[in-house]
Design a protein that fits this description.
Layout: E1 13-19, E2 22-28, E3 32-34, E4 39-48, E5 51-54, E6 61-62, E7 65-77, E8 83-93, E9 98-102, E10 106-111, E11 121-125, E12 129-134, H1 162-209, H2 214-233, H3 242-251, H4 256-273, H5 283-314
Parallel strand pairs: 3-12
Antiparallel strand pairs: 1-2, 2-4, 4-8, 5-10, 6-7, 7-8, 9-12, 10-11
């Protein structure tokens, strides 16, 4: 691809796809990230100046990733001035861990039908991209890693013992498989709880350095709750209204007191966001209000976490 006036960006994964006069370069800022760590997905489409590029159809999610930001750069000329470069950028993040896939994305293009030259139109598609999302919260070994399961089986040469070996090994394998499934189910729910509490710790630390920014504290706590609820329901909750968010929490079998705390907190958040509820600008009042919100959300997560552990222990 020719050099462009659009700034080049470092990327860990890059794809280059050519289709006739259209060239697509797809880049991902990193092929590894932590849970909820943003990664940048970029599509650069280079075409003749006579061709118009249509933005890809992208909703609130791409595969297992939530789309938190998006941007489209106005087509700019490349060095030879007869071609144009159009860029589409998306910021992605995920609360699921493991090897995830960014699915293929199709981008349409079409030449100006009023021009005398031959009409060119079609679609160009990216290829799947694998990204590993690592949980920094789970320090224990992955129970799915069978290479770490060790144990010696001593076989006897006696013919009479052989008929016992395979049934015993089969039973042992089924028992291990059941334990691994149970541990995996618990790890996913515990990871969400730990992630939320870790994010709250970060917000509390920021409050110590800037105690007057109550609006930022409230906004950050609301984002943590949205991501936490969305993860438990495997859905994108960032664009939901407050009532929809409360309904989603209720469907995930939150305890009544946790739902009540969520409703109360969101009412307070909306009052500050839309009605501009007044809080004195002095450090003491702002810090006290922010500290109370942090305590409320931390307690809410604790209630939900304890309820989930009780239910998982009963299954």
């Amino acid at each position: 691809m020719s050099d462009s006036v659009i700034d080049k960006q470092d990327a860990s994964v890059t794809q280059r796809i050519n289709e006739g006069v259209v060239q697509l370069t797809v880049s991902v800022s990193s092929d590894r990230a932590a849970i909820a760590e943003p990664i940048r997905l970029t599509f650069d489409v280079e075409t003749p100046a006579s061709i118009t590029v249509t933005p890809p159809v992208v909703g609130d999610a791409i595969g297992d990733f939530s789309v938190t930001q998006r941007a489209e750069k106005v087509p700019v000329p490349v060095t030879d001035r007869e071609r144009r470069l159009t860029r589409f950028e998306y910021t992605l993040e995920s609360l699921a861990s493991g090897s995830l896939t960014i699915p293929p994305i199709q981008i349409s293009y079409q030449s100006d039908p009023a021009l005398p030259s031959e009409t060119v139109s079609g679609e160009i598609s990216s290829r799947p991209i694998s990204v590993t999302i690592q949980s920094e919260l789970d320090e224990e070994a992955d129970p799915r890693d069978f290479r770490k399961l060790k144990g010696a089986v001593t076989a006897t040469s006696a013919e009479s013992d052989r008929w016992l070996k395979w049934p015993l090994l089969g039973s042992f394998g089924l028992m291990i498989a059941g334990i691994l499934v149970l541990l995996h189910r618990r790890r996913r729910s515990i990871s969400a709880d730990r992630w939320a509490q870790a994010e709250i710790d970060k917000i509390a630390a920021r409050l110590q350095s800037d105690p007057t920014d109550a609006d930022e504290t409230m906004s950050s706590l609301v984002d943590v709750l949205r991501k936490y609820i969305g993860f438990s329901q495997r859905t994108h909750a960032m664009a939901l209204s407050s009532e929809e968010l409360i309904e989603l929490a209720s469907k995930s079998e939150w305890p009544d007191d946790a739902v009540a705390k969520l409703r109360s907190f969101l009412v307070e958040a909306n009052a500050r966001k839309y009605a501009r509820k007044w809080i004195a600008d002095d450090d003491q009042n702002a810090k006290a209000a922010s500290g109370q919100w942090i305590s409320d959300v931390r307690e809410l997560i604790r209630i939900v976490s304890a309820e989930r552990r009780i239910k998982n222990g009963a299954t």
